[in-house]
Amino acid sequence: MGSPLTQAGLLLVNAIGSLVLLIVMLRFLLQLVRADFYNPLSQMIVKFTNPLLIPLRRVIPGLGGLDMASLVLALAIQYVIMALILMLAGYGTGMPFVAMIGWAAVGIIKLLISIYFWGMLIMVIASWVAPGSYNPALILINQLLEPVIRPVRKIMPDMGGLDLSPLVVILGIQLAEILILYPLKQVLQVPSGLIMGL
Predict the structure, then answer these.
(1) Where exactly are the transmembrane stretches of this chain (predicted)?
(2) How many other C-beta atoms lie within 10 A of the C-beta of residue 101?
């Protein structure tokens, strides 16, 4: 179980690491979907990530519209978090470097799936309780999710004004988690509770 100090350390690493990782992945996704740069939340994300990303971009160029520097930074953060967790858990420095890179990649996939799952859930609830809201967070979530929802909406039959495409996307996200994430965890033998993700 570990000492109270170890438990406190693990809690801090998990909480702070998850938040930083989430912000970096949001930077990658918002740039990918060309979200509104002037949205206050976009500005906050950019200001938070720029000190690390600007120097990294000098070394790692973009690739086909993908912000590779953000992805590399997210992988590095995931790796550092896992290393800290393992050290706090008493494994010292004898950690499998190559395996941990694979574990970090699984963590990024898990976080991406979680971002889209929770984003869809928030949008569905917001459409019931605050339709047409101009809240900056909801606008940003909508911009992030629209490229995923739009193709599904096009092939869905007309339901008389009832849009079921978010529910179909949520189902698709859960299937992706079962069919992609779980097998990857099995193949790479990812220790339970080690990778970050919402």
Answers:
(1) 6-30, 68-89, 101-130, 164-184
(2) 14
Spatial CB neighbours of 122, under 8 Å, sequence gap ≥ 6? 138, 141
Segment 4-26, tens digit of pLDDT:
887 888 888 888 888 999 999 99
Token representation of residue 153: 């909406």
Specify burial of residue 82 (Cβ count, 10 A radius: 0-12, 13-18, 19+).
buried
Q: Is the dihedral of CA 172, 78, 51, 45 positive or negative?
A: positive
Q: Which residues of 171-195 are buried (b: 16+ CB within 10 A; e: fewer)?
A: eebeeeeeeebeebbeeeebeeebb
The per-residue pLDDT for range 43-83, each reduced to its tens digit, is 999 999 999 998 998 888 888 778 899 999 999 999 888 88
Q: If we measure between CA atoms, which residue out of 136, 164, 133 comes closest to residue 149?
A: 164
pTM for the model stands at: 0.84
CB atoms within 10 A of CB 99: 13
